[in-house]
Amino acid sequence: MTNTKIAPRDISLKTDLLSPIADLAPLPAPYSADGMEPPFKQPKPEWAEEHCASLDGFIALDGLRRPETKEDEDEFVRRFIGGLAKSFADSNNSFLEPLQLTMDYCAKCNTCSEACHIFKSSGEQEIYRPIFRSDVLRKIYRRYFTPSGRLLGGFVGADIDINWESIARLGELAYRCNLCRRCAQTCPLALDNGMLTREIRKIFSQEMGIAPTPIHAKGSMRQLETGSSTGITKPALIDTLEFIAEETEETCGRKIEFPIDKQGADILLIHNAGEYMAWPENPAAFAILFEEAGLDWTLSSDMIGYDSVNYGIWYDDTQARKVAMQQIKAAEKLGVRRIVVGECGHAHKALALSADRMVSERNIPVESCLPLLAEMVSSGRLKLDPSKNDFPVTLHDPCNVVRQMGIVKPQRDILKAICPQFREMMPHGVDNYCCGGGSGFAIMNSYNFKDFRNKVSGRMKFTQIVKAFGEQFTDPGIVKYVCAPCSNCKGTIRDLFEFFETTKKFNVHYGGLVELMVNALVSMNRPFLDFAATA
Amino acid sequence: MLGAILVSVFIIIAMVGFLLLSVYRAWRFKRLPVHSRLEIYPIPKEGAERAKYGGSYLEEPEWWHKPRRIDKLNELLDMLQEMIFIRKLFEKQRSLWWASYCFHLGVYAMFVWTIALIVNVAASPPWLYWITVAVGAAGFALTTLGSFLLLVRRIVDPSMRKYTTPQEYFNLVLIFCVLVTGIASWSGFASPFVVAASVLGGGGQTFAAVVYLHLVLLGLMLIYIPMSKMSHYVGKYFAFHKVLWDNDPNLADSEVRRKIKELEAHKPKTVWVAPHVNPVKPVEEPKQ
User: What residues in A contact B167, CB-CB < 8 Å?
Assistant: First the structure.
């Protein structure tokens, strides 16, 4: 059977590899040339002995182990079916309506397929079609939970055999989608295959205790235990902030101070704690801008109050709720007037949208940093010199901020004011493509999964980046900058640039928005961005 | 004679049943609990200017202090464009739109035709006769052609065929049969005006067998539609308005807050059981 002939019920086929990755969509020049794209890392046979590598050869669910006995296999299937029942019960109140609608009404028109960057980048491999996994779930649901499915079986689409392999493959398949929800945006019936994918992840996590280690054990669990998914504790945070302040003064001659736990401040600024470790210039830039604009702000050193990440929104409602409540508690403890989320897309959605309806009493409003930053520019509170940023700049739109929150204009207003060579990617704004790292992919590096991100899920974004710079792309003499105001997007683009040697060969850099703003500040005597150091 | 009366009663029950079952379906969605925010932009109620690029009230600094502007007119216009022209499909998958639009436009014409027939029976305004004939003819032509094209597309397009269940073919075939028997009835065996008058009058007249076959199939279809996924005319409203376009924040005294409070008053009877969901030990502060 070829990859394009596979149908949803084939998820149960007895084969070592259901759909090996084949011909990917071509990359634009210069990456269309032979040898410009590194090959896939070949999976090791022993991986398949322990995990489910029979879907496409990649392993995302590193916590999913093959059962040793028939009883274990049956128990696995039984728990999945039990979890699916709970998806349609009051245990899943917050998603019942969208779930039921998507389950009932899909017209199988495949309009969503054209919108999916993974399906298109993979060379239109059937298993990555947005409705493929939805239809597998729909068939199981029909077979086990509807009278028509029990009575009429295949006539109503309840024609699926399930066993350990098929359920495990479905679990893996739930991690071949970035949850960017571009498919939902395009659906003529407004149905949401992205949401449905997350529901599969939820059954695996909330009922079966199975989730990728980087987002669960080393992600949300670590955050709940230590205060941050990075493992930074309160003393480590304070040391890190001191270090960042010293470094900033040393490299660009600007003395900065991070206000910590300032009671009654106007703003509690929450960063993705990954910024402190991987991109310390980002929190430093925020500190410079907030100080220059004269804002009354603070960071929190309280449990989870210093890390905006909330991986639960990718796979587990219970984890999402625990994390969000701790973040809100930290803000309440400080008595701040508002919470401002730094440059992290999923944290935007988690705190401003998902947490908005978790509990009725929400007394501290949450806002994105982007409107605040745009207001600082438009009001003239920051004195900026755009000639300091006179190099080609393009903007990546984080899905959570743009398509899912409708924050589109502020970041553009800023870039138009401070970057004379700003140009858009195509498409952009609410029609953007995911960076390829959404929904946890950015931090999932187990086994060969990194290859899936770099070569498949990140392929469309990489193509967009190359095209955005046109002929300037291949000129190493021209510095080029991809502005990505989101930690996970930055992480994904960083890996893409390493994988394809983009910075090294073509002098293309990436970073946040605030770094460009600080670089343009008239008051900065030395450049804030040092491209020579990252080349 | 008894058969004619039974068919007349059945078709009236089917028409009322169609309406009641559709309302029941809508009521079932309406009573579902408030859901997590899952909005996707553009959202038309944000106003024409913002909807053009997909912006929202969250673009404003301190949005909660700003008056919330909800543009109902723009929402209505957007909704009408979707209802009348099936705009999303037109923009995203033009090749399928031709068949789908042909079919749905025909369905709208058939609704108008049905109402016009009833008005003709009740009041017989002379000006309505030819309008009714024209609308009916257009409705039959468009729905028959549309359902045929949709059926062919599902059969010949491998990516659609793979996902289409026998029931989904059955739905199209049922519609097609209703239409073909209708065309046969009205073009060769009876006047729809006379049959409508007879049905609404209790079935006093008898007609050719094909007319009864058409009426029975039509009645079965009307009862079946709200129970099948063909009731997407209900689902689509909720999927757009109550999910993708629902960006109402949880503010004091808001409807959203009231609904969340209502939900909080009822503890779920079903619980998830993974070990981390309900840990025996509560989460503790780390030792510094």
Answer: 148, 152, 155-157
